[in-house]
Amino acid sequence: MTDEAARSPAKKGRYKRKLQGTVKGNANPGRTMAKVKARQLRKKLQEILATSDRKTALAFAESYSLEQLTGPVFSQFYHPVDLVKFRSIALLGKVAGRTEPVSTERVRILMRKLMWYLNEESGGIGWGAPEAMGEVMANCERMGLEFGSILVSYLDPDRNFLEHEALQRGVLWGIGTLVEKVVPYDPDSLLRLITPYLGSEDAVKRGFAARAVLNMGVDPASIPLEFLESDRGVIDIFNGWHFRRTSIARMVTDRKEE
Question: How far apart are CA 48 and CA 209, in angstroms?
């Protein structure tokens, strides 16, 4: 009797399943390799964002397309160190900026992905998405004109208002980044949405709201920032690659003196 014939039905079944599993495991080695490469890219990107300077990070990103970097960059939005998160967002904006002249649609797809993460149907919370929307639009003016009103709508109680406190911070930061380059919304209406946050109990919201108003280029004398000139709340402001710790009072007075 052969070894195969001597096997019990149970053993035969296990043997068959083992063979099938082996075949399935090798059915698409390309996909497996792609996953490995994606993990390696994500790990390398995180290392660069945490330890390297801006020039090194941008040089690294030059070797990859927007699509290749999107997933690894998105994963950094959840990084426990805020500096890594903000650096990943800055990098995404630069990559989108160099992609837009080649293909506007590819950047448009990226914007839709970021919007999806802020949609309840996505099942997620959307960490980093508002900040990233603002950064991408600041680097791609056409996207700012197309999607800027959507970012603003996340502060509007009558539209797509986001109730999560951390996301409100992100929206204020994203708007502040966007309006430094383009104001794709009626300035008076935008001011009406931002102004309530100038009196928030949250120092970060107050500071980010003040940054947004100042970045709009509105005459500081015409907006209600005087009471913030004595605001001793301390916040971290991202300057493109590093955080700068400042009081809200100092940030406002410095901008008024420019």
Answer: 30
Per-residue b/e over 240-254, b at no fewer than 16 CB within 10 Å?
A: ebeeeebbbbebbee
Q: What is the pLDDT of residues 43-63, one digit of tens each?
A: 999 999 999 999 999 999 999
**Dihedral Cα 152, 154, 156, 159, nearest 10 deg:** 110
- Alpha carbons within 13 A on the beta-carbon side of 3: 1
In one-letter notation, the amino acid at residue 130 is P
First to last CA, the chain: 94
Instruction: Please answer whether residues 48 and 56 qualify as being in contact, where contact means their C-beta atoms are separated by less than 8 angstroms.
Output: yes
Structural domains in the chain, sorted by start = 38-257 (1.25.10)
Of the candidates 216, 209, 136, which has an alpha carbon nearest to the alpha carbon of residue 184? 216
Tokens for 219, please give them.
């005459």
pLDDT tens-digit profile of 200-237? Answer: 999 999 999 999 999 998 765 667 677 888 999 999 99
Q: CA angle, corner 60, sides to 54 and 65, nearest 5? A: 120
Q: Which band of pLDDT confidence, cut at 50, 70 and 90, is reported for residue 5?
A: very low
Q: How many other CB atoms are there within 10 angstroms of residue 227's CB atom?
A: 12
Task: Name the phi and psi angles at 44, rounded to 5.
Answer: -65, -40
Residues 6+ away with beta carbon under 8 Å from 185: 148, 149, 152
What does the DSSP assignment read for 50-106?
HHS-HHHHHHHHTTS-HHHHHHHHHHHTT-SSHHHHHHHHHHHHHHHHHHTTT-HHH
